[in-house]
Design goal:
The chain is of the alpha/beta class. 41% of the residues lie in helices and 13% in strands. Helix 1 (3-18) runs parallel beside helix 3 and helix 3 packs antiparallel against helix 11 (311-323). The mean pLDDT is 96.
């Protein structure tokens, strides 16, 4: 699609709508001349060049990429109106779009019933899930894997809940034996299973966590902020296909979080939380004398902890889902390419003398380290840091990676031959979240082999 054409189309569409109202004078205090703007804009665009090239496949670092152009046009067009999805009074059109897009997310996870809404981030979405966990099991704590996102420990602190990390197994998944032993103690009210850990992309065995939790009367929340859209690959007849069991079990869990601003092609400001039981809406009950007056229909602010929220974020997601719906033949194709890229690269690394896999990728995160001379953790740590720095500093052929700090015990479980001469080490980590990675992987691999051998 032609971004310039549709950005203009958005400005025109809103202008035409505004022209249907009685004309009025814009206030002179807001006036800015094109000359003034040109000067500020030139400094602004120059400042933006300080960014790393998140759009390019040579950026193989963190979970970052620009949104789909459809999301950009949807966001900017709706932003010209600037609706607030807190209440139907603030954003009637975009609040309805939000409910439709959230229903599509619920369908993607196979939820038969749901209550859900968008949030500004995965952090806030998880906070809401843990808030409901606390209301349902007052006085009981929350368990999560030691590999879960740090937000769970932090938010337990915010909510005054006892948070208990559970050890992870050799593949970075929540250890089921340790979980069972912990739940036997009766102190835990909710378990968080992570479907795609932030560091390694490991998928906790949601189905087994669910069975253990249910046998002890414990709830299950799934943090699929990063991994959630990979459910579209569950059971797929494709090299990218994933084992169905953990993904199908999400439909039976109590809540799930997914971030459209990660793998849903959206700009930042778009997380989502969904509860299986719509009755949990009762924990959000509050009175607002200034809102909720035009309709008896449910206002999104009545079922969320946040107040003001960008209606433009819902608009962008709704428009994107019209074109690339959260189905295997829509958005699923994007995720399949990312996972195939990760699998192909893992094979190239396994065949390489210069690089070594830390562990096999489950989704699209590849973890690896320079193998040449890698006898000790300090050598690996230094070589990883050197590759990261030299890759970014190379003006002619730059490459952008990220590092992951791993504990020496975790390293030893996967690579017993390495001398543990320090507590932990940095290894390299690449999130291949752009589908273009698939056709770029040989180039990326050769570049990293060069850097590793330098
Ligand atoms: C599994 C998981 N949960 C939660 C978060 C936090 O999400 P956000 O950065 O949108 O607040 C992340 C971020 O990477 C994540 O990967």
């Amino acid at each position: 699609m032609d971004l310039r054409r549709w950005l203009t189309g958005g400005v025109d569409a809103i202008g035409e709508w505004q022209a249907t109202f009685w004309p009025f004078e814009r206030h002179p205090s807001l006036r800015v001349s094109d000359e003034q703007f040109a000067s500020a804009f030139s400094t602004f665009t120059e400042r933006l060049r300080e960014n790393y090239p998140f759009f390019h496949p040579s950026y193989a670092g963190q979970m970052l990429k620009p949104p789909h152009p459809a999301a950009v046009v949807g966001y900017l067009t709706a932003m010209l109106v600037n609706p607030n999805n807190h209440a139907l009074d603030g954003g009637p059109a975009t609040a309805r779009m939000e409910r439709e897009a959230v229903a599509q997310l619920a369908e993607m996870f196979g939820l038969a019933t749901h209550l859900g809404h968008l949030t500004t981030s995965g952090t806030i979405a998880n906070l809401e899930a843990l808030y409901v966990a606390r209301e349902l099991h007052p006085g009981r704590g929350v368990a999560y894997s030691a590999e879960a996102h740090y937000t769970h420990g932090r938010m337990c602190g915010v909510l005054g809940l006892e948070g208990t990390p559970v050890e992870a197994d050799d593949a970075g998944r929540l250890d089921l034996g340790a979980l069972d032993a912990l739940l036997a103690g009766g102190r835990i009210g909710t378990v968080v299973a992570t479907a795609g850990t932030t560091g390694l992309g490991a998928i906790d065995a949601v189905h087994e966590v669910l069975a253990i939790a249910r046998s002890r009367g414990v709830r299950v929340h799934v943090d699929a902020a990063y991994g959630g859209f990979f459910t579209l690959l569950a059971g797929l007849d494709d090299p990218a296909g994933l084992d169905e069991a953990p993904w199908r079990a999400i439909a039976e869990c109590d809540s799930v979080v997914v971030d459209p601003h990660k793998h849903g092609l959206q700009p930042y400001g778009c997380g989502a939380v969904l509860f299986r039981d719509p009755d949990v809406g009762r924990f959000y009950l509050h009175d607002s004398p200034y809102t909720y007056f035009t309709s008896d229909e449910l206002h999104l602010g009545e079922i969320s902890l946040e107040c003001s929220r960008a209606g433009a974020a819902a608009a962008a997601l709704w428009l994107t889902f019209r074109l690339l719906p959260p189905r295997p033949d829509g958005l699923g194709q994007v995720l399949a390419a990312c996972r195939r890229a990760a699998l192909r690269w893992a094979q190239l690394i396994s065949d390489s003398d210069r690089l070594e896999l830390y562990q096999r990728p489950e989704l699209d995160i590849v973890s690896y380290f320079p193998a040449a001379g890698a006898q000790s953790l300090s050598a690996i740590d230094q070589a990883s840091a050197r590759m990261l720095a030299e890759g970014m500093a190379d003006q002619a052929d730059p490459v952008y990676l990220s590092t992951l700090r791993v504990a020496s015990s975790d390293f030893a479980r996967r690579h017993p031959g390495i001398k543990l001469d320090r507590d932990g080490a940095r290894i390299l980590r690449s999130v291949l979240m752009k589908p273009e990675a698939e056709s770029y992987i040989s180039q990326l691999h050769s570049r990293l082999e060069q850097l590793a051998g330098a």
